[in-house]
Amino acid sequence: AQTVTQSQPEMSVQEAETVTLSCTYDTSESNYYLFWYKQPPSRQMILVIRQEAYKQQNATENRFSVNFQKAAKSFSLKISDSQRGDTAMYFCAFRSYNTDKLIFGTGTRLQVFP
Amino acid sequence: DSGVTQTPKHLITATGQRVTLRCSPRSGDLSVYWYQQSLDQGLQFLIQYYNGEERAKGNILERFSAQQFPDLHSELNLSSLELGDSALYFCASSALQGGSTEAFFGQGTRLTVV
């Protein structure tokens, strides 16, 4: 069975600084997708970024980028130029190529302070 | 706004009761997923429907059931409620099955069992 581990329950960063959230996963499959979701206090789950396992190039979306290390089964999220609006819970998620269900990590609570 | 609508937003009920949570997917989305977010279990996949048919099942209790109607809206029925069922219940929808199709989440229904 696949598992997703986020070992940092809480992180904090100063505005305009860079922060990296860690995620590791376990799977025996070679084709899959990885996601980072953001959950602000509004509770809405918002997709931040996605990575297809067959792509070697790391995904980027504006200030958000990932470091995908397939052999190490690691998928970290880097947030550059942190903003107050980035304060939220961040969930790493795995989806097999053959199913649609998302397997989530336990989340990292990120606080951005002035 | 993700386009996925969940009602009600909040629900308080007593142990032993039965409730129904409703989800309207984004226009045109055929897949509907239900997830449970509790403090001790994190985000857990419950069940998926695709165009009216059950497609995948997670750790859904026998006291819980769901269905997807011809108009593609879905309902999650929770019966014989226990204190431990208190959680945030999310519905998500996606256009297709598989691939890198993004799942869009509703704002959730906060269920409190007292």
Compressed to H and E, one letter per element, the order of chain B equals EEEEEEEEEEE
The largest sheet of chain B is:
7 strands, mixed
Supply Rg of chain A.
Answer: 14 Å
**In DSSP terms, counting alpha (H) and pi (I) runs of 4 or more, how many helices of chain A?**
0
Total strands of chain A: 12
Ranges of chain B where pLDDT stays below 50 over 5 or more residues in a row are: none
* Largest interface, C-beta closer than 8 angstroms, per-chain residues: A-B, 22 and 27 residues
Structural class assignment of chain B: mainly beta
* Outline type of chain A: globular
Mean pLDDT of chain A: 95
Helix content of chain A: under 10%
Please tell me how large the radius of gyration of chain B is: 13 Å
Description:
The complex is a heterodimer of chains A (114) and B (114). Chain A is 0% helix and 53% strand. With 114 residues, chain A is mainly β. In chain A, strands 2, 5, 6, 10, 11 and 12 form a six-stranded mixed β-sheet that branches. A four-stranded antiparallel β-sheet of chain A has the order 3-9-8-7, with no helix packed on it. A two-stranded antiparallel sheet of chain A has the order 1-4. In chain A, strand 7 and strand 8 form a beta hairpin. In chain B, 0% of the residues lie in helices and 53% in strands. Chain B has no helices and eleven strands. In chain B, the strands form two sheets. In chain B, strands 2, 4, 5, 6, 9, 10 and 11 form a seven-stranded mixed β-sheet that branches. Chain B has a four-stranded antiparallel β-sheet with strand order 1-3-8-7, with no helix packed on it. In chain B, strand 4 and strand 5 (42-50) form a beta hairpin. Chain B is globular, with a radius of gyration of 13 Å. The N and C termini of chain B lie far apart (31 Å). The model of chain B has no long low-confidence stretch (mean pLDDT 93).
